């Protein structure tokens, strides 16, 4: 049979993170995938070596717009590991609140886009509407909707005003009924079960082999979460559960993200209610020579920072490992064998900041264009409609 | 490599990442592993001479090492033995061969490029 190569990406005007996926297809089935990244390589590790320790916090906050807290969180922990110091209790709680709020809105964003790819535009609208509410809460607490700029080595930059806490709690409580309704709608929908179960299988062995992280690995039964394994911030002061499913497919990843939002809401609420008083910053003056490692469980998986100091005011080396760096190669295990209409959602399932999934184009070997980006989303949405018809659902 | 294989397979450690760096007198790679159940973080330090740096690859042991070895190869110029291909991961296609941006002696090869905005 004639093999065709589909290229997905690399640029899309709507989203960040351009990447290029080359899918080799035989008829409808994907037989191989090649992932190319590097279209957005900005040399931030090198840039960070030219900034002092405080400036670096701002630079790395701009690595990602969606999880803008995860990198400063891991970085500040790495710097504190060099000295070493323990941050004040109140700063630990504030850091946890910001990080978990970010997880909720990041997962809501994923759900919205996943809904759109599957032809569930109602889910898309509802989820993004809910996300606005969370962004409002973040604005009340930190002053910013994104890029909160709350972190600095040794503590946090700004305090949470205690007058704002009741309003934030009220807003969070108002979200829960809507989220409950959406949870029921998603978990009880037979079409979604038929559409997502059994596709994009990443077995437990493969997840370990590829060193997958976050929801991608927890959906494959790998019970690893740095918040539980080596607690930091206020994660050991709050009661919460790690969500692990064994189904290994896209459905499992969706369920992990859905239930994690509830855990995050629980953590944010408990932290806001029990926010201790005291200092928020240690006012670190200088960083001694040494090496430090910091990790934080970002919405997409663990971010990992290694910082080496030579006694000057700048890092001698700053290594950043984002979670998608380890999760993207798993597509080599999950995509081959699936159909083109499923590839859209499998690529989206690891939450790679979707940029390209909308910009797929199917080309034959001679370079003739078979499908454009819109057609591929249409293919994916039509499959959902077909399943609906077969089930007799209008 | 046998050591890393032992840590990963027998101790069931998790591989985080490898950090490559130029310490002026030599090159270094740190392989970061962690064993969660005893809350232990292990960093294996490999020191390499600046002339012809070469180390055995960990990709045959676990696939998670594939991309980071490609990254270290192009940014620091360290060769990895016993793995299929070391094709480019992050740098642009027009980036010249043999110019490694994370080396301390790195010189701007394209004089017209605006890379440093003077942070």
How would you describe this structure in keywords?
heterodimer, A: 394 residues, alpha+beta, Cytochrome-c3 Hydrogenase, chain B, 2 domains, 5-stranded antiparallel beta sheet, 3-stranded antiparallel beta sheet, 15 helices, 47% helix, B: alpha+beta, 2 helices, 17% helix, 28% strand
Describe the structure.
With 394 residues, chain A is α+β, with helices and mostly antiparallel strands. Chain A folds into 2 domains: 44-357, Cytochrome-c3 Hydrogenase, chain B (Orthogonal Bundle); 364-394. Helix content of chain A is 47%, strand content 14%. In chain A, strand 2 and strand 3 form a beta hairpin. In chain A, helix 4 (89-117) packs antiparallel against helix 11, helix 6 runs antiparallel to helix 11 and helix 7 (190-196) packs across helix 15. The two termini of chain A are 37 Å apart. In chain B, the strands form 2 sheets. A 3-stranded antiparallel beta sheet of chain B has the order 1-2-3. Chain B is an alpha+beta fold and 119 residues long. At the A-B interface, helix 1, strand 7 and strand 8 of A face strand 1, strand 2 and helix 2 of B.
């Amino acid at each position: 049979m004639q093999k065709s190569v589909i290229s997905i990406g690399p640029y899309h005007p709507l989203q960040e993170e351009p990447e290029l996926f080359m899918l080799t297809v035989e008829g409808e089935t994907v037989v191989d995938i090649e992932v190319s990244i590097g279209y957005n390589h900005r040399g931030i590790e090198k840039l960070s070596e030219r900034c002092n320790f405080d400036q670096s916090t701002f630079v790395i906050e701009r690595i990602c717009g969606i999880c803008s807290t995860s990198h400063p969180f891991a970085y500040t922990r790495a710097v504190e590991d060099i000295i070493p110091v323990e941050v004040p209790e109140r700063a630990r709680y504030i850091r946890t609140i910001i990080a978990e709020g970010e997880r909720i809105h990041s997962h809501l964003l994923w759900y919205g886009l996943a809904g759109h790819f599957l032809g569930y535009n109602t889910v898309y609208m509802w989820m993004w509407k809910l996300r606005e509410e969370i962004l409002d809460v973040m604005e009340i607490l930190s002053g910013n909707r994104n890029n909160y700029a709350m972190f600095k080595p040794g503590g946090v930059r700004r305090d949470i005003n205690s007058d704002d806490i009741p309003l934030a709690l009220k807003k969070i409580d108002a979200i829960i009924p809507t989220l409950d309704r959406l949870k029921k709608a998603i978990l009880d929908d037979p079409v979604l079960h038929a559409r997502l179960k059994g596709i994009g299988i990443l077995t437990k062995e493969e997840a370990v082999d590829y060193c997958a992280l976050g929801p991608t690995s927890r959906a494959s039964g790998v019970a690893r979460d740095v918040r539980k394994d080596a607690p930091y911030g206020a994660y050991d002061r709050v009661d919460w559960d790690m969500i692990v499913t064994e189904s290994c497919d896209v459905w499992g990843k969706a369920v992990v993200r859905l239930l994690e939002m509830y855990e995050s809401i629980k953590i944010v609420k408990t932290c806001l209610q029990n926010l201790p008083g005291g200092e928020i910053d240690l006012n670190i003056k200088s960083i001694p020579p040494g090496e430090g490692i910091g990790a934080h469980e970002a919405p997409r998986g663990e971010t990992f920072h290694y910082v080496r100091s030579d006694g000057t005011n700048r890092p001698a080396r700053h290594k950043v490992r984002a979670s998608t760096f380890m999760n993207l190669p798993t597509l080599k295990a999950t995509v081959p064998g699936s159909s083109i209409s499923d590839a859209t959602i499998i690529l989206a399932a690891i939450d790679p900041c979707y940029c390209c999934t909308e910009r797929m184009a199917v080309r034959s070997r001679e370079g003739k264009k078979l499908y454009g980006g819109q057609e591929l989303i249409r293919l994916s949405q039509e499959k959902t409609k077909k399943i609906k018809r077969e089930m007799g659902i209008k | 490599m046998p050591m890393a294989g032992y840590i990963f397979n027998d101790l069931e450690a998790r591989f985080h990442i490898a950090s490559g760096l130029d310490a002026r007198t030599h090159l270094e790679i740190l392989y970061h592993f962690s064993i969660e159940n005893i809350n232990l973080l292990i960093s294996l330090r490999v020191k390499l001479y600046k002339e012809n740096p070469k180390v055995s690859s960990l990709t045959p042991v676990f696939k998670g090492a594939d991309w980071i070895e490609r990254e270290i190869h192009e940014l620091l110029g360290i060769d990895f033995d016993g793995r299929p291909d070391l094709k480019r991961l992050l740098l642009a296609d027009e980036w010249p061969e043999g110019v490694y941006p994370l080396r301390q002696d790195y010189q701007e090869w394209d004089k017209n490029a605006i890379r440093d905005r003077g942070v």
